[in-house]
Amino acid sequence: MSIVKPSLIAALFLMLACNSTKKEVSADKISGLQTSKVLQSNVVKLKEVVKTLSDADSFPRNIKKDKTDWDFVGVEDWCSGFWPGVLWYAYEASNDPEMKAEAMRFTAPLKTIAYSSARNHDIGFMVYCSYGNGYRLTGNEAYKDVLLSAADTLATLYSPKVGTILSWPSQMHKFKYNTIIDNMMNLELLFWAAKNGGDTSLHDIAVSHAQQTMEHIVRKDSAVYHVGSFDEDTGEFLKGYTHQGYADESMWARGQGWGVYGFAVAYRETGDKAFLETSKKLADHFLNRLPKDGIPYWDFDDPNIPEAPKDASAAAVVACGLFELVNLVEDKELKAKYFKAAKDLVSTLSSSEYLSGDKNQALLLHSTGHYPKNSEIDVPIVYADYYYMEALLRLKNLEKLNSETDKVVAN
Ligand code: GLY
């Protein structure tokens, strides 16, 4: 049963009316005031939902088919940091002290991840989305300590022989020493720590990881493998695999998104143009292959397309990566191209086809988690909401910059 009051939903829909009535929403349907309104309505919904969650050790992860309320996971699940992250973004969008208190409440239990031995690379997702946003928005020194410890813990998975972080110690039987494209997203924690009192070797680890990923996991066809398998004694690259995609050589949508965003951040932190070119290459390939409604299928090469499920989470991740690229590329036309593409993604996600409205407790519908395992197919998933909120905030900030300056990017 949905806990969101019908009267509230009616009000939200009035606010969203302009961009929520069409299946396909063009970029110019969401701009300026509209971005703020969508953010505002998302905050109202999140505030209602969070009030119903009494147990801060349980974190929303997905909403099962035909259900309206979140299903929860514990602190050790790879998705645990996204819910506090969503709440931090809601606080950033609203400046509402109640949202801050809720974000703090759900952030606190994740501390243990930073001080336990590393189970996998997901420490970055778990701690940076929660404590990272918390520290960015509050400057709370206690959060900084947790972040620095989390970075040291993540770095224990680094192999100097391979030059990467071991992503999944539990999957060695299947993939040998493995490094996955998702792991690119967790380098930001290491870059941050090296600049904020952590050991400078954390920066070097992140750079080496990004270089090895660029060399072996980014493919010549401008897509990425999900998993790279290496010889842990010699460091030799053995083979690329998929785990969550359709096939080893297919283009798993979210994996491509982790690559776009991860390499953009690697360039931002190093100035190494090869990382920028890689991010651009992955972004261009993603955009060139997008279906007509602008939201990717879960895997671009699923032979069941157009019946295959979509993945809104991949769209949200790529939108954030593209907004990052807008800040990084110098060429004005390219800036405008990536801004429009990101804005198109956000606009479509904000249409009635993808926005949950009063259907359930999440913000977005239609994400796909692990299709080959028949898990989380075409359902709301918390990381879609996280990157969607981030994308909306990034869009709002760029639009503000545009209105204050002589147009940073064409609108
Ligand atoms: N393995 C993390 C993801 O589903 O993207």
Detailed description of the structure:
It comes from Jejuia pallidilutea. One of its GO terms (molecular function) is chondroitin hydrolase activity. This is Unsaturated chondroitin disaccharide hydrolase. The active site is at residues 122, 182. Keywords: Hydrolase. With 411 residues, this protein is mainly α. The protein has a domain at 53-156. It is built from 15 helices and seven strands. The protein has helices at residues 6-16, 33-51, 82-94, 97-107, 111-115, 123-138, 141-155, 172-175, 187-195, 201-216, 253-270, 273-288, 312-328, 332-349, 382-404, and strands spanning 59-62, 71-73, 158-159, 164-165, 177-180, 227-230, 237-241. β6 and β7 form a beta hairpin. α3 (82-94) packs parallel to α15 (382-404) and α10 packs across α11 (253-270). The chain is globular and about 55 Å long. The site of glycine has 4 residues, from loops. Glycine binds at residues 182, 244, 254, 369.
Secondary structure blueprint with pairings:
Blueprint: H1 6-16, H2 33-51, E1 59-62, E2 71-73, H3 82-94, H4 97-107, H5 111-115, H6 123-138, H7 141-155, E3 158-159, E4 164-165, H8 172-175, E5 177-180, H9 187-195, H10 201-216, E6 227-230, E7 237-241, H11 253-270, H12 273-288, H13 312-328, H14 332-349, H15 382-404
Antiparallel strand pairs: 1-2, 3-4, 5-6, 6-7
